[in-house]
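Task: sequence design from structure.
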């Protein structure tokens, strides 16, 4: 108990010890999306929907259903949903660690890597750790039948947020249906990945995961800066867990959820406007615009 209390104390005070990064180059927040899909889905108790996957000694749940996970030089930690899903809305409110976090990944994602090792699908929200005075990078990614051995085809879009994600909880979500994947931050759509073919879209059931781990080889400026355990523990907090939709065991009549008022899916004009604003002002990388990529492998970028 003393260790858990110390971790939470360090997390609470550490933001005052480091230089503040600049999070909004434009000084403005996105326009209202006009619709808030997170309000449609109930929050769940962590243990009703999830279980520890690894690093149980680096994971603690408080009386307010807020989960704390942390990384030190001995281990990180991760959790996994009890059920697999074939579509749904998946979200959590997350507060990130301040200061030097280079090499550290805090993640919330969908995957079936345990069911299909070496040939899995994945939909990622990843926070790439950073150095003093620089903002976190939020990376969204989609893998389809990836091998994870160097031939995997990433579909990354990266953003610098319009707020400091270490100051408070913010809600991050993935809406996955048979037609599209939509990534949302505080109900603002930041990316829509439509299904253009079965070869470029994940269709097999996936579980919901969260984790914190050392990815020094690539996470921060392509591995230039590594995790520095003089600043351990690196702490992430998750709460307001949501996982609602069609489980892998649901009837075939189960109707996919939507991120908009339209039952058929898609986004409203106002949601598209908000998304385009974020991409114009806060997107820092788009794989479809990278001339170093072989776009024969990403046909969804063609049209």
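Answer:
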């Amino acid at each position: 108990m003393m260790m858990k209390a110390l971790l939470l104390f360090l997390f609470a005070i550490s933001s005052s010890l480091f230089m503040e990064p600049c999070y909004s180059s434009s000084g403005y927040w996105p326009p209202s999306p006009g619709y808030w899909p997170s309000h449609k889905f109930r929050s769940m108790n962590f243990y009703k929907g999830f279980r520890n996957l690894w690093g149980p000694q680096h994971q603690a749940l408080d009386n307010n259903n807020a989960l704390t996970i942390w990384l030190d030089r001995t281990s990180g930690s991760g959790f996994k949903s009890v059920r697999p899903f074939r579509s749904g809305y998946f979200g959590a409110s997350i507060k990130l660690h301040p200061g030097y976090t280079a090499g550290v990944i805090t993640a919330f994602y969908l995957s079936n890597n345990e069911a299909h090792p070496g040939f899995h699908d994945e939909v990622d929200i990843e926070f790439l750790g950073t150095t003093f005075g620089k903002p976190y990078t939020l990376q969204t990614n989609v893998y389809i039948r990836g091998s994870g051995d160097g031939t995997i085809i990433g579909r990354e879009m990266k953003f610098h947020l319009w707020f400091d994600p270490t100051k408070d909880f913010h809600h991050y979500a993935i809406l996955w249906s048979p037609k599209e994947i939509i990534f949302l931050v505080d109900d603002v759509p930041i990316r829509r990945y439509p299904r253009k073919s079965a070869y470029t879209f994940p269709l097999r059931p996936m579980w919901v995961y969260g984790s914190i781990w050392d990815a020094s080889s690539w996470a921060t400026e392509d591995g230039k800066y590594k995790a520095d355990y003089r600043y351990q523990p690196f702490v992430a907090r998750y709460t307001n867990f949501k996982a609602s939709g069609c489980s892998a065991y649901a009837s075939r009549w189960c109707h996919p959820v939507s991120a908009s008022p339209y039952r058929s899916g898609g986004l409203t004009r106002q949601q598209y406007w908000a998304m385009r604003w974020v991409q114009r002002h806060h997107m820092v990388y788009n794989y479809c615009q990278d001339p170093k990529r072989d776009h024969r492998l990403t046909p969804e970028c063609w049209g």
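Confidence is low (pLDDT under 50) at residues 8-19.
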